[in-house]
Design goal:
Number of strands: 33
Shape: flat
Radius of gyration: 27 Å
Helix content: under 10%
C-alpha cells in the first residue's frame, strides 16, 4: 500500500485450466507475506495463474475500537472523527490491483519462467454487519457467525481483518470491506430444540443488518429400495455442482439414510456407492426438484428422497482409428442423450497404444459415443463446443448387463 510492505497478508494462488471438460479456476495453495511483504510460490506447473490477497491495514481501528478510549470512556465528537478515518479495510484484491476477479490479470507461466507479481492494496471505508437475534431467542442464545470471502471456484477464504462483538444478543462483524461473502452461522435452538447451521451468500456495499435464514440449509433424508440388490455398505452422496463439495449419508439395513450435515440450497449430483454392478434406476423427491440424476434444493424445510437401485451395468469397448490404423491417446467420450442433467453417467477413457478402449460400469440407456484427438483440454461440457462433434458420434444403446463394441473414426479436436 503506497509502496509500503504489507506483512502477514494471506496470499492465494489460483490456476485456470480445463478439467473434466470445463474451464475452471481452482485454488492451488496459500502463503503468508513476511515482514517485507514478500511471498513466493515455487515448483509450479506451466499454466495460467491468478493471485489474490487478503490483509488488514496495521493502522486500522474497527468500529468496535471506536466506541471508547483506552480508559473505557466514551469518545468525544472530535475523537470519533479522528478515529473514523482509521476505520478502514482492504478488499480481497487480485493481481495487480483489482477488487473483482473479472478485472484481474492472469499470469502465464512457461517452463523455466520466474515471474514477479507485485500487488497494490488500497484501503477503503470499512463496513459493519449486524446480525439480529433470532425471534424469541434470549441474549444467551446468540448466533455464532463466521464471514468468509468467496473465491472464483466457489471456495471460501477467511477474512482475518474482521472483528466480532456481541451486544445484547446481537452480533456485530466490523472491519469488513465491500465485496461478496459467505456468511455461516450456528443458531442455537430454543428450549429443547436443536440448533441449526445456516449459510447464505451476501453482497456488501454498505452497513447492513441481516436476519439469519435458518431455512438456507435443508434436512435431507430418504429411503433406498434395494430391489433385490446386495448393498451392505452403501452410501448416498450429494455433490454440489457449484463448489464440488460432497455430503455423505450411510444407508442402514432397512434402506433408510439421513444426512448428518444439512446441504445448503443449490444443485447436486446424486450417486450411490459401496456396491459393484449397482446403479440408481430412479430418483424421486419431495421438498426438492429432480432433473435426471440432479437434485435442486431450494433451501429450508425437509427434503425426502426415494431411490430405487438395480444391478446389471453395461460395458462399451472398441477401437479408435485414424487413417485406418489404431490411434493411441485419443479421448473416448460416452455421453448420455440428456448428459447435462446426468453428468454422473458420462464415461471417458484414453485409447491404448493399439487404439483399443474400454468403458466399464455404464448405466443402461441411450448414449452418443465419439473419439477425439488431442482433446484433453477441450471444454466438452460447453454445448457450443461439443455440438460440432456430435453429428459424427455413434449412437449406442446399452442394455442391462450388456456389452457393446464399436470402431470409431477419430475426430480432430480442432474441428469447428
Amino acid at each position: 500500500e503506497h509502496n509500503e510492505p504489507v506483512a502477514q497478508a494471506q496470499v492465494v494462488l489460483l490456476r485456470a485450466a480445463v478439467g473434466e471438460g470445463e474451464m475452471a479456476v481452482s485454488q492451488v495453495t496459500q502463503r503468508q507475506t513476511d515482514d517485507l511483504g514478500a511471498y513466493h510460490f515455487a515448483h509450479l506447473a506451466p499454466g495460467n495463474y491468478y493471485v489474490a490477497v487478503s490483509a488488514r491495514p496495521w493502522y486500522a481501528i474497527s468500529a468496535v475500537g471506536m466506541m471508547r478510549n483506552a480508559r473505557g470512556d466514551s469518545l468525544t465528537p472530535q475523537q470519533e472523527r479522528e478515529r473514523s478515518a482509521l476505520n478502514v479495510a482492504y478488499p480481497l484484491t487480485y493481481y495487480p490491483s483489482a477488487d473483482e476477479f473479472t478485472d484481474a490479470e492472469s499470469i502465464a507461466l512457461h517452463p523455466g519462467d520466474r515471474t514477479i507479481a507485485d500487488i497494490s492494496l488500497h484501503a477503503v471505508p470499512a463496513l459493519t454487519v449486524r446480525i439480529a437475534r433470532p425471534p424469541g431467542g434470549s441474549p444467551r442464545n446468540r448466533p455464532h457467525p463466521s464471514l468468509s470471502a468467496v473465491l472464483p471456484d466457489g471456495s471460501t477464504f477467511g477474512m482475518g481483518g474482521a472483528a466480532y462483538q456481541s451486544r445484547n444478543g446481537e452480533m456485530q462483524i466490523t472491519g469488513i470491506a465491500p465485496g461478496h461473502y459467505s456468511l455461516t452461522a450456528f443458531v442455537p435452538g430454543r428450549r429443547r430444540e436443536m440448533g441449526v447451521t445456516t449459510q447464505q451468500d451476501i453482497d456488501l456495499s454498505s452497513d447492513t443488518e441481516i436476519s439469519l435464514q435458518p431455512g438456507s440449509s435443508a434436512a435431507v433424508a430418504g429411503k433406498v429400495d434395494f430391489g433385490g440388490v446386495s448393498c451392505a455398505q452403501c452410501r448416498v452422496v450429494l455433490t454440489s455442482t457449484a463448489v464440488r463439495h460432497s455430503y455423505t449419508a450411510e444407508v442402514v439395513s432397512g434402506g433408510d439414510f439421513v444426512f448428518a450435515e444439512s446441504p445448503p440450497r443449490g444443485t447436486y449430483d446424486i450417486a450411490v456407492y459401496g456396491a459393484q454392478d449397482v446403479y440408481v434406476r430412479s430418483l424421486a423427491a419431495s421438498g426438492a426438484t429432480v432433473r435426471g440424476r440432479q437434485l435442486t434444493i431450494p433451501g429450508g424445510g425437509a427434503v425426502s428422497l426415494a431411490l430405487a437401485l438395480s444391478n446389471g451395468v453395461g460395458r462399451v469397448e472398441g477401437l479408435a482409428r485414424k487413417n485406418g490404423q489404431g490411434l493411441a491417446g485419443a479421448m473416448i467420450l460416452l455421453l448420455p442423450e440428456d448428459w447435462r442433467q446426468n453428468p454422473g453417467l458420462v464415461r471417458r477413457d484414453q485409447s491404448d497404444s493399439d487404439g483399443s478402449f474400454t468403458l466399464p460400469s455404464v448405466v443402461p440407456g441411450n448414449y452418443l459415443l465419439l473419439a477425439l484427438e488431442s482433446a484433453w483440454d477441450l471444454e466438452w461440457k460447453n454445448p457450443a463446443v461439443i455440438q460440432p462433434f456430435l453429428k459424427n458420434a455413434e449412437r449406442v444403446q446399452v442394455a442391462a448387463g450388456g456389452s457393446y463394441e464399436a470402431t470409431l473414426n477419430v475426430q480432430p479436436a480442432t474441428q469447428k
